[in-house]
Automatic annotation (TrEMBL):
GO molecular function: dioxygenase activity
Protein name: Alpha-ketoglutarate-dependent dioxygenase AlkB
Classification via SUPFAM superfamilies: Clavaminate synthase-like (SSF51197)
Pfam families per the UniProt record, alphabetical: 2OG-FeII_Oxy_2
Key word Oxidoreductase present: yes
Fe2OG dioxygenase domain sequence ranges: 96-201
InterPro entries for this protein: AlkB-like (IPR027450), AlkB-like_sf (IPR037151), ALKBH3 (IPR032854), Oxoglu/Fe-dep_dioxygenase_dom (IPR005123)
Keywords noted in UniProt: Dioxygenase, Oxidoreductase
Length: 220
């Protein structure tokens, strides 16, 4: 299979539902569950310190630090299995990535609230490639009203079921014009690991650090 475009106004989205064959996705899920030093990070949300409703880890090239929600993450060195998938993702997208954020949603109660991946160190039109392993969860996108001034109605939200082995690519103006989330589910589901490959620009990190000291971006 290959990446196919999804139609969303003022955005650029691509999906390959069968990027990794299921057995490969299962093997990688089991390996990462076991070897990654998963952490539940505290974040500041509306002035209060709370724990993120999921576990995370940050891997990347040396120096690819990432700041969000008041956190400053130093990358762990690439695991061979992660370096291997990075290469496949780079081949499929034609983009280079120097880091990957891993999210582990332990159950239906783990989630990520609406946000945009618009941290300054990612640059103005970041390409973010998101690989799903394990349980199917619904990925939602909704328009940022400020991005569609005078539009009545606003473009419709979009829900995409992300199945094990699928690769979703967001690029261009997607982060500027849309928010995305991974809500809790009402039905019980098993664990899901999501890998979002990113390119952190070293030149923008200093500026990013200064901005985050003042007003941390939130990834709820
Ligand atoms: O788990 C997902 O599919 C979304 C993850 C996400 O949006 C992020 O890590 O910024
Ligand atoms: Fe995101």
């Amino acid at each position: 299979m290959s990446l196919k475009p999804l139609h969303l106004p003022a955005a650029e989205l691509w999906l390959d539902p069968e990027f990794l064959p299921l057995p490969a996705a299962e093997t990688l899920l089991a390996l990462l569950t076991e070897v990654v030093p998963w952490q539940q990070q505290p974040i500041r949300l509306f002035g209060r310190e709370v724990l993120q409703p999921r576990l995370t880890a940050w891997y990347g090239d040396a120096g690819a630090t990432y700041s969000y929600s008041g956190l400053h993450l130093e990358p762990l060195p690439w695991l061979p299995a992660l370096a291997q998938v990075r290469q496949r993702v780079e081949q499929a997208t034609g983009c280079r990535f120097n880091s990957v954020l891993l999210n582990l949603y332990r159950s239906d109660q783990d989630s990520m609230g609406y946000h945009a991946d618009d941290e300054p160190e990612l640059g103005p039109e970041p390409t973010i490639a998101s690989l799903t392993l394990g349980a199917t969860r619904t990925f939602r996108l909704k328009p940022r009203p400020a991005a569609f001034p005078g539009a009545a109605p606003l473009p419709a939200p979009l829900s995409i079921p992300l199945t094990s082995g699928s690769l979703l690519v967001m690029r261009g103006l997607t982060q500027q014009n849309w928010l995305h989330a991974l809500p809790k589910t009402t039905r019980p589901v098993g664990p899901r690991i999501n890998l979002t490959f990113r390119r952190v620009s070293p030149a923008k990190q200093k500026q990013a650090f200064a901005i985050h000291q003042k007003a941390p971006a939130t990834k709820p």
